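assembly run, all chains below
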Amino acid sequence: MKTGRMFRGFFVKTISFVGYTVQYGCIAHCAFEYIGEFVSCSGPSMEPTITNHDVVFSERVSRHLCRIQKGDIVIAKSPFDPKMNICKRVIGLEGDKVCTSGPSDVFKTHTYVPRGHVWLEGDNLRNSTDSRSYGPVPYALIRGRVCLKLWPPHNFGVLAESPNDGRIL
Amino acid sequence: MPTTVTVLVIGRLDVVWDAVFSATHSAELFDVMKSGFLKTGRMFRGCLVKTISFVGYTVQYGCIAHCAFEYIGEFVSCSGPSMEPTITNHDVVFSERVSRNLCRIQKGDIVIAKSPFDPKMNICKRVMGLEGDKVCTSGPSDIFKTHTYVPRGHVWLEGDNLRNSTDSRSYGPIPYALIRGRVCLKMWPPHSFGVLAESPNDGRIL
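ok done. output:
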C-alpha cells in the first residue's frame, strides 16, 4: 500500500512536471514566433554590417504585418535547404526593377521582381550567394527582420544602412 | 448675561447646528465614507485581478492551441477545382504537420503549401517530383515531350485536375520550405470521409 501510494505520488508529480513544461514551452514558442528571436549569424556575406559569430535580434512583427521594406535586413529560410536560414538585405520588393549585372559589366541588365517575391543581396557583394545567383525568393520564406545587433558589445545597436546604395533602384 | 448668550445662540442657530452636528457625527460620517471608498477600491481591484487572470488564461491556452496546430495538424477547408475529383470545392481535410517537420514528404502526397505569389494564401496540390527528379513539363497533347529536373530543396506540384490547375507547370518548382503540411484525411463531406485516393494521373509521376 505504501509503495503504491509512493508510486502514485511520484507518477502524479511527473505528469504535472510534464504538463508545466509543455505549457511554458508552448508560451515560449509563441513568444519566439510572434515577437522575435535571437539569431547567431555565420559567414562573410553581410560584412561589414554583420560579421561572423555576431548575435542579432530579429523581430517577427513586421513580417506578419507584411511591413518589410527595401533596405531591411531579413532572416529567411534558404530556398535550397529547408533546414537552413539565410541573412540578407532586401534590395527589391515585388514589382521593383533590380540590376542583375555586376559593377564591372559593360552592359547593364535589369529584371523585375515577380509578385509575392523579394530580391535579396548580401552587403559583401563579392562574397555572397544571393538572388543574383538563385533569383528572387518568395516573400513567404522570410522569417523576420533584423533590428538590433546584440553581440559583440562594442557594436551593440541598430544596424547600418546598405553600403551598396547604388543597387537599390 | 445668559439672556444675551441665549439671544446670540438663537440668532446664529445654523452655525450652532453645524458645530454640534460635526462634533457628534464626524467620526461616523468619516467612517461611512472611508468604508465606501475601500469597498469600491476592493471591487475595482478584484475586477482588475479577474480581468488580468482571464487574459492570462486566454494567452496560455491560445499558445497551447497554436502549438498544437503548428506541430500536430490542422483542419483545412479547400476551395477551387484544381484537385478534382480527389478534393472538391468546400471539402474539409485534415493536414498533419509531422511529416513536414521530419522532412518525410513523398512523391504522390497531397500537400498544403504557402502560395509563392501571395504570402497570405495557401495552395493544395499533389507532389509530382522531389529534388533531383525528372518531371514532364509538356502537356499530354504535345508532340514533343519536354522534361526538366527539380532543383535542390524544391518540389514540383501539380493539381489532379490538370486542365484547370495553376501549378508548377506555370510557375515552376517551389521551395520545400513553403510546404505547411500533408493532407492525410478527408473529414467532410461525410460520404467521402477517409483516406484520399491516389493520383489519377499516374503516368506523370516518373
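Residues 13-71 of chain B form the longest helix (59 residues).

Chain B has four helices and nine strands.

not gonna interpret more than that til we talk
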